[in-house]
Amino acid sequence: MRIKCPYCGERGLEEFLYSGDATVARPRDGGAAATQEWTDYVYFRENPNGVHRELWYHNAGCHAWLVVTRDLRSHEIFGVEAAKNVALSR
Amino acid sequence: MLEATTLNLPGTAHVQLAPPHSIVSIAAFKTTEVALHQAATLPVTPHYVLGNGVMFLWSGPASWIAVSQAPDLEARILRAANGLAAVTDQSDGRTILRVTAPVAKLQKLVPIDLDESAFGPNATALTLAGHIPMQIWRCKNGFELCCFRSFAESLYHALVEACEV
Amino acid sequence: MRLSTGGAIDRTKILNFTFDGKAYQGFAGDTLASALLANGVKLVGRSFKYHRPRGILSAGSEEPNALVELRTGAYREPNTRATVVELYEGLVAQSQNRFPSLKYDVLSVNGLLAPVFAAGFYYKTFMWPASFWEKLYEPMIRRAAGLGRNARLPDPDVYEKSTAFCDVLVVGAGAAGRAAAAQAARAGGRVILADENPPVSGAENVVYLPRTTVFGVYDGGTYGAAERLADHLPAGPGPRQRLWRIVAKRCILASGAIERPLVFGNNDLPGIMLAGAVEKYVSHYAVSPGRNGVLFLNNDDAASLIPVLTEAGINLAAVVDSRPKSSPAVRDAAVEASTALFAGSFIAQAFGGLAVTGVEITTSRGQTIKLECDFVAMSAGWNPAVHLTSHLDGKPVWDENIAAFVPGTLPPGMEVVGAAAGTGLNANIVPLWSVKNAGAKAFVDFQNDVTASDITLAKQEGFVAVEHLKRYTTLGMATDQGKTANVNGLALMAEATGKTVPETGTTRFRPPYTPVAIGALAGPHRGKNFRPTRRTPTHDWAAGLGAVFVETGLWLRAQYFPQSGEDWLAATSREVNAVRAGVGICDVTTLGKIDIQGPDAAAFLESVYTNSWANLPVGKARYGLMLREDGFVMDDGTTARLAEDHYVMTTTTANAAKVFQHLEFCHQWLWPALAVCFCSVTDQWAQIAVAGPRARDTLAKLVDPPFDISNAAFPYMAAAGLTISGTPARLFRLSFSGELAYEIAVPARYGAALAQALMEAGAEFGITPYGTEALGVMRIEKGHPAGAELNGQTTAHDLGLAKLFSRKKDFIGRALASREALTDPARPTLIGLKLVNQGDRFRAGAHLLPQNVPAVAAHDQGFVTSVAFSPTLGYWIGLGLLQNGPARLGEIIRVYDPIRNGDALAEVVSPVFVDPEGTRLHA
After folding, report:
1. Helical H runs in C187-327?
2. How far apart are CA C559 and CA C571, in angstroms?
3. Same-domain status, C279 and C371
4. Which member of A8, A14, A84 has the closest CB to residue B126?
5. What pTM value is reported for the model?
6. What pLDDT is stored for residue C121 in this prediction?
7. Contact A8 B111 (CB under 8 A)
8. pLDDT of C481-511, one tens digit each?
9. Given this model, what pLDDT does residue B37 score?
10. 3-class secondary structure per residue, A18-81
11. Which of A10, A16, A45, A65 should we substitute to test contact with C (largest number of C Cβ atoms within 10 Å)?
12. Measured between beta carbons, which residues in chain B are less than 8 angstroms from residue A63?
């Protein structure tokens, strides 16, 4: 698989580390207690049979974290964004 | 001064250890361009610019490395950065190897397209050589590869095996 | 036999080779198969299950029968298809799967047990009694399994890997492929043309890779190819093969087509071959498979063989055409060749022992005619070689007109041309998937010995889905991946179930198209080049002192410095004693060092560490604990504040990259608005621990004035920049050993010189270099958790570090660390262990149980995490995790280690064995 890093261009899979689900958001309540929201954030994941948004780290390249929109069946990638930009716009 | 040790990597026909350079890492605190007073506007795409004996290479989003044979590079860049960027000396943290072999030999190690059509005169890239992360750029007669100092020996041996066979 | 004229072989270059120990000759340009046929060798192997005599079926990489062991010694490679081996001087080949010889294979008695060996054999036999499985059945199956033998020696060849980029990759250099490549080159793109065969002439402006099989299609326009650089030459020093990863914007597949055998009785006898292969042997290699043949076909394409045989002077006794009225093309060719034509007829079975001697034909009127012949050319039509189109899950589609599968959905960027697309194939074909009433075994999959009746059996037993058919009968599962078998098998199942072929489906093809040597996949990354090695700045200095090194991840670290006659234990104990009595130095460069700068650096540290950071003064360091978001401990280290907005964080060696990744994650994804930057400086600074009561005295001799290293000016946990002989340096007063200790850092190029300078300065105090073993002993003596305790399954509570949790702020892991189960004191918690019998020894990994209960898992209360011989105390000590540990100090428990025969009693003690008051730290 090849991922088009928005900074470096298209690179092979070996330059990246997959790191999970980009659709879950860290609760903003300060974390004083282990609520259901926190447990869901850490443990529960959707496993869609189709398009998903994932976090990848360009480990052997520019060290950017990326949000990749990808079809989990066909591996077709529909978009790659800098995670920082996605996070800032939330 | 304490005595400096150079890595024992003898030059071969196509692979040489570059002489020591000052290398400084620059990372902007905010995602904006940092224009240094040397009048070299820092590249925002994977390229390098040359100015006043200093090469500024893009090294990631809002990150660059400055490479020069001039002394006091860190101090000069600190002044120029004026609190807008993190400035960190990497003169000992990184090693530069020069490769003058045909591109086909380097492609045995480097997984990006190094053909002139894809990797032009001022291009640079952060990628791998075999299993070793490094930054590569074109130079006169060939390429320079910059890796963490502790990987230098392994990178050197991998390059010699790829280029001298 | 060799024809006296014709062919593309070079008759001026004679090559000598051996097969099964017998010497033969061939010509340059021969394959091993063509040379064997030229020498009249028809019997080349024995089949997998039934050990039936087998000959050469094809002239290409689809060959299922002619599998040989090629070369000898460590170079020996089993299951090599003789049809693709280019003959070279001195080639040595052996047939496989027979004992004692091809001619007299004792296992051919398997044929007599045929009913037992039918499909499903593996699933039905060897089931009972269960106890026989391990001792009898499995070894039997293993001995009988497989075809050729592995050399079982390290692969002596050298392999390369490379990446290539192009606009167009053309797969196949036949007519269609060459035309496509030329066109693409004229359009100005970068073109690569790859073909599995030896070179024909090159093409302009095209990178031509002959002897190169494109074996796989992968995501993102990536293709895998294996180039055989030297397999056609005697073994030599150069690279044998090169593995290519080709990244292509477009791919044109011109892989041609593969002929199908006809399924009739004994169709596997040596001398029965695919018609297209016979044509190739005659016209290209000037080799005839025999003197008197029969052609059996169901389509017009195979008729092209008829004039070729006539021209070569080879007699064709008959053409048997299963189509009711044959066709004009075949009729005309038969007339031209004066050959008898049996229309609407089929070969019911062939006869022969070690080679075919004749056939029995059933005519359209039901008569039976026997004909003598010494070869049979058969054609059931051609299958487009669509394999690569389905590597990314594309399904080929059935084309009724040509009775074959053609490409269906294609991988992105791929188009198919020529025979691979079904163009110009199977003119006027009438499908014949098997003859009726074969009267003898009729083979569908030659390599795995699957017959037409096996397919009938599978259907009877309910295994009708094509994936079940495949696995139940093993059809298509051999090294040829059913290239000459799949479609026949599938179509027979369709017939048996009364469905159409499309309804029955198709199996998926997966890479590699043909086998790829594992050496090629490894390329240069084997032996000492398997991974890179990272060396510290003092590596050579330590090696010069005789250090023994240990791998810590990619790093080499000095483990201990043995003096003459010392083993590791003696050296380590000496080093520990020297440090605690005087002073020692140890390279700690490998611990991750991350430079953190920015106006929000402090706020960021607050978020990733459990404890407080905002109040850390400039010039001080603090121990930091980092959790994962699930509340378990991820890493620890010390972070020093060098300036208002400037910190240096240290991590454990093993987690350096992981922590850096984590910091970038937290900054880019969780808190992107914070102004903070990270830079790895692990390699920038050589860092050396100086530890022991005389550490200060040693350093005092080296630091440049006006730096004040007194206890008052530079107390425990202080951090500062200074110079050493004019060299910029950083000094940290940190202690892992529990002694008065510092870590001194200089830019890496000065690391060796620093070590030397320290040794000289400390000589009068008995300074000693120490390695990771002594480092480990001392931290165990002080009860400091390290890698063995930070194993990803422990919490701060478990390690006695819960006091480091700030109550006032959010930090990574805060919420889930507060879960009741993670703070339960009954969890295994850190304690020290001291054997009741102090002369004894115990080992990490041993389990902890109460006394006087059976040693079973239900009574397991924890385990030993770290063990060391403490020279300070004179006996073995350990750290462990014990349920309710800290509440059980003084209790005697059992340390149980059945794997290494350990079983001892130990007292639960505080993990801090040496200087529990910590007075030495603050000296």
Report:
1. 275-285, 305-312
2. 10
3. yes
4. A8
5. 0.93
6. 67
7. no
8. 999 999 999 999 999 999 999 999 887 799 9
9. 47
10. EEEECCCCCCCCCCCCCCHHHHHHHHCCCCCCCEEEEEEECCCCCCCEEEEEEECCCCCEEEEE
11. A65
12. 60
Residue range(s) defining the domain that contains residue C624: 594-647+654-679
Domain that holds residue A60: 2-88
Q: Which residues of C touch A88 (CB under 8 A)?
A: 672-673
Beta bridge pairs of residue C191: C168, C206
Q: Are the beta carbons of C870 and C781 closer than 8 angstroms?
A: yes
In tens, the pLDDT along C31-85 reads 999 999 999 999 999 998 888 999 999 999 999 999 999 999 999 999 999 999 9
Residue carrying structure tokens 């990489």: C61
Q: State CA C104 to chain mean position distance.
A: 39
CA distance C233 to A31: 68
Q: What is the spatial distance between Cα C828 and Cα C73, in angstroms, rounded to a whole number?
A: 55
**Edge-to-edge strand ranges of the sheet holding C621-627:** C621-627, C633-643, C646-650, C593-597, C677-680
Task: Spell out which residues of chain A touch residue B111, defining contact as CB-CB under 8 Å.
Answer: 11-12, 14-15
Spacing of C-alpha A70 from chain mean position: 10
CATH assignment at residue C444: 1.10.10.1100
What CATH number has the domain bearing residue A56?
3.30.2270.10
Region for C418 from its dihedrals, namely left if φ exceeds 0, alpha if ψ lies in -120 to 50, beta otherwise: left
Per the structure block, which two tokens stand in for C553?
């991840």
Are residues C609 and C572 part of one domain? Answer: no
Tell whether C310 and C363 lie within a shared domain.
Answer: yes
C427 with C525, same domain?
yes
- Would an 8 Å CB–CB cutoff place B44 in contact with chain C? no
Q: Tell me, yes or no, whether C658 and C576 share the same domain.
A: no
Q: How many residues does chain B have?
A: 165
Between A67 and C128, the more confident residue is A67
pLDDT tens digits for C671-714?
999 999 999 999 999 999 999 999 999 999 999 999 999 999 99
Q: State the SS3 of C426-451.
A: CCCCCCCCCCCCCCCCEEEECCCCEE
- Interchain contact, A32 vs C815, CB within 8 Å: yes
Residue C139 lies in a domain: no
Q: In 3-state terms, what secondary structure has residue C612?
A: coil
Scan residues 146-165 of B and list those with Cβ closer than 8 Å to C: 148-151, 153-155, 157-158, 161-162, 165
Mean pLDDT of the region A47-65: 97
User: How many domains does chain A divide into?
Assistant: 1
Those residues with Cβ within 8 angstroms of residue C207's Cβ, 6 or more apart along the chain or in another chain: C164, C166, C190, C191, C192, C193
Residue numbers in B near A8 (CB within 8 A):
46, 125-127
Both tokens assigned to C471: 């696995």
Cα B149 from Cα B155, distance rounded (Å): 10
Q: In total, how many domains does chain C have?
A: 7
Mean of the per-residue pLDDT values of chain B: 92
Q: Which residue has the tokens 């001026």?
A: C12
Answer for the pair C326, C332: CB distance below 8 angstroms, yes or no: no
> Does residue C595 contact residue C681 with C-beta atoms inside 8 Å?
yes
Mean pLDDT of C802-826: 94
Tell me, yes or no, whether C349 and C227 share the same domain: no
Q: Which residues of C touch B93 (CB under 8 A)?
A: 680-685, 748
The answer to whether the CB atoms of C669 and A83 lie below 8 A apart is yes
- Is the same domain home to C636 and C726? no
C878 touches C869 (CB < 8 A): no
Distance CA C377, CA C389 (A): 30
Is the pLDDT at C152 greater than 60? The verdict is yes
- C130 within domain boundaries: no
At residue C273, does pLDDT exceed 60?
yes
Rounded Cα gap, residues C484 and C257, in angstroms: 11
Are C174 and C216 found together in one domain?
yes
Distance (Å) from the C-alpha of residue C515 to the closest C-alpha of chain B? 22
Contacts of C760 (CB under 8 A, 6+ apart): none
| Domain boundary pick from C380, C413, C448 | C380
